[in-house]
Amino acid sequence: MKRFLVLLLSLLLVLCSFGAASAEEPVTITFSFWGDGFEKEAVEATLSAFEEATGINVELMYTPEDYATKMVAMAASNTLPDCGYCPEVNVIEWAMNGMIYNLNEMYTEYGLGVEDRMGQVFVGPDGDIYGTSVGGGAGMLFYNPDIFDEMGVEYPSASEPMQWNDMIALAKQLTVDENGLHPDDEGFNPEAIVTYGIDLSQNGTMYIDAYLRSNGSGVVSEDGSTCLLNTPESIEVI
Question: Which helix (H) or strand (E) holds 93?
Answer without folding.
Answer: helix 91-96
